[in-house]
Input
Amino acid sequence: MMPLPPFQLVQPESLLEAAQALAAANGRGRILSGGTDLLVNMKHQLYPEDSAILISVSDLPELRGIRLAEDGGLEIGAGERLSDIAINPLVVDHASALALACGRVAHPQARNMGTVGGNICLDVRCNFVNRTPAWREALGGCLKADGDLCHVVPKGTRCVAALSGDTVAPLVAMAATARLVGPDEERQVPVADLRTKDGEHPLALRPGEILASIHIPTGSANRKTAYIKWAVRKAVDFPLLSAAIVLDTNPGGTIDLLRIAVGVLGPRPKEIKGLEKYQGKRLNAELAQDIADRAYRQCTPLTNVLYEIAYRRTLLRVLIRRELEGWID
Output
């Protein structure tokens, strides 16, 4: 077993106090809630040795709650456990893709400990990073840890490690926003903008900012949402391929809105472009194939996670087509 390195634990009594403590840590602090990913990464020594200030927010009531907002949207505290979100009636009714994603994370023990905020802010993963220190040292390190070379994209200057958090793609597809609380102010940003394209610094957070809650706007009365996850095993594993689909139809059955966000390609989900061309059309088998082909053309997996690139890319097209075909009236 790998030991957990020494760390200092800070237990603030409010969210503002937590943000102030995080800012005071001056880059050395990390937010601790469920810890299902953070503590493992610490054991792998993925963070500098002086980054040993953990600020626990697991008991803060300000980060809890699942409720309908005044605008009819859904408000979810970042500290809500994944297992609770997966079965919450409000989430199941108003954001079924998120409920599905939360229910597919890892295994029951991780879902009972892990929070939606932690899953959204999950650090990126890569075949060449999430290894023991000795393994990484033998390889010479990489842009993310202990080196200056990318083994996924030779001569690459930006880390392309993959975001494997299950919840982010559904939230991006549903146009969710994040409420961020800092030591001096709070702000709202789209979840899509919360993640960067650089795996070395994957979160677009200002000093001291903490994810407090997410807001999912209401959809049409005819909204359908889906979350697709593929991994070698149906439990425990991080996704090797993921996608979220949101489809709003008009009373007449034609497409009003279509969004698809694909995960596990890089540090942030990829939103499929050009889907507005399907507005006003009725979903059928031919259209489902065309939409899946568009996703296939825009998505190119990398060797940052296991399994063959060509297989994952082809499988993405197949799974999106099958999901859409299941919605044909």
Notes: The CA atoms of residues 163 and 170 lie 13 Å apart.
